[in-house]
Backbone:
């Protein structure tokens, strides 16, 4: 896992539920490469046209609320989202993302701090967001240590493989 | 300690735990539904071979029951084969119904247990004094691998509900009202306990509605102190011996609220957020194309009965469809025995076989652009039941019955005329 992540910001409002991140009509899909084709489609059908690998998703609060579908985390992980930063997260989405090694950061005031298209640099270990475009810094929350450990392993699957649990 | 903390302490082999701590807890039952073939994939990707304990795992095929596509049929086929291969006997196929109703009816839920399922509405089981919580596929796979899962011990919010409900007001109206006050992020990561006279007088079905929808406030789990109503229901269903630990008197809740529902009116949550609830007489008249009665939130026998009573022999409006999907086979059988199915079909309703139906926008009654649906289910997110250009209104089953007859939400204009 890269501890410093940089990318362009895509901003969303509050309460972006997992139906908006990954619409229910695609839940039958199983392969990550297929799941990746519908990222954020319910919130913005043109998202993938604007998105480049490594870009960062910024949301107001309660990002990933609603359904437990792991597809929501898989779709963002598959297209290589650099990180998702929000004032708060739906708890199941939070767990799913950590499990898959998709970096998340809880950060108060992030919505006012970033505009669509701003270039950002994030230090996950220190919990810091730099807005390169606007030349300012905001402090978010660090990931809990055991979560960071899991992220460093590349997600919970690798974490368990490393621990050799059978 | 709170009763939920005592459950987690016992399950993690400790004397005590407190909010914020991370514990590894043994899981009494892990449930997988048919959206989650990924669970099996993750299990093998993590090096799994045999599941930790096949008796503590159940597979319930409900979200795509019966399969609407070749892909979903293939996913279900793989899940069945996994169950056969691993000796998982608790496989409930597409004939049984929605997981949260099926688990309860089959006696798989009891007070004090830890229940984890690949479904956000697992908070439902707080109605039985169980610690129930939803997770994704990979978390569930770690339970299949190890029998346990990490949890952060949640803070608990106490919600006291008092006052007698005025018919046709139902538990669904109460929870829509509470969510409208506390917001969709009002309980994120937390446990929600319901207490008070109103809750005490509720039957199991109504309690399940309250707990079911706490996830719409972001709750991790919910809780209602088990009492005679709980024990009577559970003991009819399970031979399981269980010991109930109660909350200590000196436990400090993170927040406490009291709601008096004596004067509560039927609630309607307008698009596109669950916390948009308001009194029905504060909503504009809205023409409704489809009324849906079903799901783990609003598809139980009591809900179908409430719709029958509300319709009171009247027919479904000529420009409206009434779609009813009982939450389980047992619910459907009882609805047939009581004559509800025949009454409703004669009134113009359509029935589909038990399962999740169109609640999550996969099949069995999706919405076209520009259409309006009034539903007893739990979510009115954009695109939840089909087109992102459709509008979803959340209502109680009694209100749903009234809307089916009127062809519209009888909002402030109509209700004013009636007065």
Residues:
């Amino acid at each position: 896992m890269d501890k410093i992540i940089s990318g362009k910001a895509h901003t969303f409002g509050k309460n972006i539920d997992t139906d908006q991140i990954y619409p229910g009509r695609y839940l039958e899909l199983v392969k990550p490469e297929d799941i990746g084709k519908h990222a954020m489609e319910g919130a913005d059908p043109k998202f993938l046209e604007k998105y480049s690998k490594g870009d960062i998703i910024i949301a107001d609060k309660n990002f990933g609320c609603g359904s437990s579908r792991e597809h929501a985390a898989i779709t963002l992980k598959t297209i290589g989202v650099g990180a998702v930063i929000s004032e708060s997260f739906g708890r199941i989405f939070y767990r799913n993302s950590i499990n898959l090694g998709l970096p998340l950061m809880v950060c108060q005031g992030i919505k006012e701090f970033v505009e669509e298209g701003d270039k950002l640099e994030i230090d996950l270990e220190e919990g810091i967001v730099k807005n390169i475009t606007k030349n300012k810094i905001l402090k978010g929350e660090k990931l809990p240590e055991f979560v960071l450990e899991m992220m460093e392993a590349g997600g919970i699957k690798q974490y368990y493989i490393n621990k050799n649990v059978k | 300690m709170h009763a939920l903390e005592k459950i987690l302490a016992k399950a993690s082999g400790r004397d005590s735990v407190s909010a914020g701590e991370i514990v590894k807890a043994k899981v009494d039952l892990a449930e997988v539904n048919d959206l989650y073939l990924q669970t099996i994939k993750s299990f093998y990707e993590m090096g799994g071979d045999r599941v930790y304990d096949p008796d503590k795992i159940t597979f319930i095929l409900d979200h795509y029951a019966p399969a609407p596509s070749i892909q979903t049929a293939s996913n279900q086929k793989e899940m069945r084969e996994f169950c056969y291969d691993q000796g998982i006997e608790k496989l409930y196929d597409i004939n049984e119904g929605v997981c949260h109703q099926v688990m309860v009816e089959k006696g798989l839920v009891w007070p004090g247990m830890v229940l984890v399922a690949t479904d956000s509405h697992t908070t439902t089981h707080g109605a039985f004094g169980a610690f129930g919580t939803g997770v994704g596929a990979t978390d569930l796979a770690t339970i299949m691998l190890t029998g346990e899962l990490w949890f952060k011990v949640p803070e608990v919010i106490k919600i006291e509900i008092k006052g007698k409900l005025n018919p046709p007001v139902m538990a669904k109206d109460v929870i829509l009202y509470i969510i409208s006050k506390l917001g969709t992020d009002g309980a994120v990561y937390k446990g929600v306990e319901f207490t008070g006279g109103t809750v005490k007088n509720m039957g199991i079905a109504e309690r399940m509605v309250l707990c079911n929808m706490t996830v719409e406030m972001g709750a991790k789990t919910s809780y209602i102190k088990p009492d005679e109503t709980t024990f009577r229901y559970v003991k009819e269903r399970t031979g399981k011996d269980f010991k109930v630990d109660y909350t200590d008197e000196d436990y400090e809740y993170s927040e406490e609220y009291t709601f008096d529902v004596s004067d509560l009116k039927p609630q309607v949550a307008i698009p596109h957020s669950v916390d948009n609830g308001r009194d029905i007489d504060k909503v504009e008249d809205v023409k409704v194309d489809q009324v849906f009665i079903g799901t783990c939130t609003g598809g139980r026998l009591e809900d179908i009965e409430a719709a029958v009573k509300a319709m009171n022999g009247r027919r479904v409006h000529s420009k409206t469809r009434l779609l009813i999907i009982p939450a389980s086979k047992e619910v459907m059988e009882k609805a047939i025995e009581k004559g509800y199915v025949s009454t409703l079909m004669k009134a113009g309703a359509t029935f589909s076989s038990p399962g999740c139906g169109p609640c999550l926008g996969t099949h069995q009654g999706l919405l076209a652009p520009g259409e309006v649906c009034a539903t007893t289910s739990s979510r009115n997110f954009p695109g939840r039941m089909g087109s992102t250009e459709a509008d979803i209104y959340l209502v109680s089953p009694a209100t749903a019955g009234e809307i089916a007859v009127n062809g519209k939400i009888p909002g402030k204009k109509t209700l004013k005329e009636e007065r």
Remarks:
- Chain B is about 30% helix and 20% strand.
